[in-house]
Structures are given as C-alpha cells and as structure tokens.
Write a structure and sequence with these properties.
This is Pseudouridine synthase. GO terms for molecular function: catalytic activity, acting on RNA; pseudouridine synthase activity; RNA binding. It is a single chain. 22% of the residues lie in helices and 28% in strands. β15 and β16 (276-280) form a beta hairpin. Strands 10-13-14-9-15-16 form a 6-stranded antiparallel sheet, covered by helices on one side. The chain has a 4-stranded antiparallel sheet with strand order 1-2-4-3. 35% of the residues are buried. It is α+β, with helices and mostly antiparallel strands and 298 residues long.
C-alpha cells in the first residue's frame, strides 16, 4: 500500500468501500484500516477519538505526522544518514558512542545527534530507536519517525523480521565448519555488565560464516537470529574465539582497545509498504589498518 504525505496527514486510496449493515462509509473505512491495511488497533482508536481519521470521497486521510519534540537535547555534531524517508531513519553509529544518554557519561549520545538533525532543519520530528548497539560496536541504527512507524517496526522486531548482519575480527582460526552457535545466554551473577552462556538463560542463535583467516585471527560474518545482550561477543568467546579488543570476554587489546565488531547491513519491512528496505554500512576505515597489522603478523 502506497500513500502520500500531506503535511501532518497521510493520504490513502482504499478503493471501493462496502459499508456494513449498520454504519456508513466511515465505518467501512475503519474496518478496511484494520483488516486490509493492518493498522495498529490502539493507534486507530486514538486517531478516531481525536478526529485524526477523515474520509473525503475516495481519499482516506490519517493524521500520522503530528508535531513532536525530542526529549533529547540536540548536539550539533556530524552524523551519517544511511537511509531516510517519511517513516524511518537509519544512521551510522560510530564506535565509542552510546545509543542514548545514561545520566553518567557527559559525552553526547547518538540520540542527541539525531535530535540535532531535525532541530537544524526546523522539523518537529522526534525519532525513537528500534534496536540498540553496544557502545563500542559500530553500524546502522534504525529509528522510527512517528508513532505509527514505531508500532509497525517494534512488531516487526518482535516477529524477527528485522535482519542484522555483522562482521567481526575474532582471535584464533575459526573452523570453517562452524556455521551456527545455538547456546542460551543469561546474566553473569559475578559481573554486573557481563553475560554468559547458561542453561537457564534465554534462547540465543547466531549464524557464522568464515570470510578470511590470518595467522592468529579470523574475519567472520555473523547473522543474529535472536537479539540477546552481547550475543555475538558471548557466543564467540564461548567457542574459544573472543573478539579482538573485547577485554570483557577474554579478547586481547593489543591491536584495538574495544571489540572489533561492526554492523554491516540492516534489512527491515517498510512501515507503510511492507517492502524490504536494505541498508548497508561500510566497514570502519580503521579496520583496513587492523587487517594489515594482522597480515604483517603472519
């Protein structure tokens, strides 16, 4: 389904509407929104109560883009936009920056930088992130630009319809036969921020593809089938291949002071059309130097 944004409104063309036995075309439009368009019921009831649904001739209008103010203070620093439309935003998160403020670190978060995008444009938009990346993991982060998009993308995330592909530099030579790791992950009661493989943990599945090997390291591509905290880091450490730089899980910081983990690509169903959107994020420039060092060490 395609639609046209007109100011605060989304305009749709639902086609012929057949009124129910009791009710007119407006009631038919509400039924169409729920059963055909797949509109989130709670948001539909809210819009209906607030006059945010209008039917004029063959055009159905929904007030999906009301002005919104971000809760995060805008900080004007460069941020790379990888994809954007009226509903969603994907930006590159560099290593060493948090997704949102933690109340402790005074450094601006990605949320502050994203807030500044719309502050500078003078657009009343307050994006909300759909998924997270660790502070020192780089890669694409998906944001919803309105409540409708957030509900649709959150639901897609719950159904595991948002695909995330990572690349990592791990210690040791990964066996080419290692194609997946299926081990439950839980909290480590001996360390507040660490996770571990635990029989009582939550199901966690990671697919593994070996790309390159060096004398004492491997470049691997990883696909998350679940989204547990530190999943890739825990799984690779568990099989004897902690990430380079990942001191928390046994990796050496000789070449890098943080984990060598990068989100290579992201795929998600578009909130309006349902079509799959693919977004790539090039490998960090410092990885070229790191791989050169690993080759020299052979």
């Amino acid at each position: 389904m395609n639609g046209q944004k007109r100011g605060e409104w989304l305009e749709l063309m639902p086609g012929k509407l057949n009124p129910p036995e009791q009710g007119g075309r407006y009631e038919a439009a509400l039924i169409w929104l729920e059963r055909v368009f797949g509109f989130p019921p709670k948001l539909q009831r809210s819009l209906d109560a607030e006059g945010g649904i209008k039917l004029a001739g063959d055009r159905l209008r929904l007030r999906l883009f009301p002005p919104s103010t971000s809760q995060y203070e805008p900080v004007d620093r460069p941020v790379e936009i990888l994809y954007e439309d009226d509903f969603s935003l994907v930006v590159h998160k560099p290593a060493g920056i948090k997704i949102h403020p933690d109340g402790v670190n005074p450094e601006p978060s990605l949320a502050n930088l994203v807030s500044a995008i719309y502050s500078q444009r003078g657009e009343p938009v307050a994006p909300e992130h759909i998924h997270r990346l660790d502070e020192y993991t780089s890669g694409p982060v998906l944001y919803a630009k309105n409540t409708y998009a957030q509900l649709k993308l959150d639901a897609a995330m719950a159904r595991k319809e948002i695909g995330r592909v990572y690349v990592a530099l791990a210690e040791g030579i990964v066996n080419p036969s290692l194609s997946s790791i299926n081990e439950p992950i839980g909290r480590d009661r001996h360390h507040p921020s660490r996770r571990r493989v635990s029989p009582s943990g939550k199901e966690a599945r990671t697919r593994v593809e070996l790309l390159e090997t060096y004398s004492k390291a491997s470049l691997v591509r990883l696909i998350l089938e679940t989204g547990r905290t530190h999943q890739i880091r825990v799984h690779l450490s568990h099989v004897g291949h902690p990430l380079i730089g990942d001191a928390l899980y046994g990796g050496s910081t000789r070449y890098l002071p943080y984990q060598a983990l990068h989100g290579e690509s992201l795929a998600f169903p578009h909130p309006l059309t349902g079509e799959t959107v693919h977004v790539s994020d090039p490998w960090p420039a410092e990885w070229d130097k790191l791989r050169a060092k690993l080759l020299d060490a052979q």
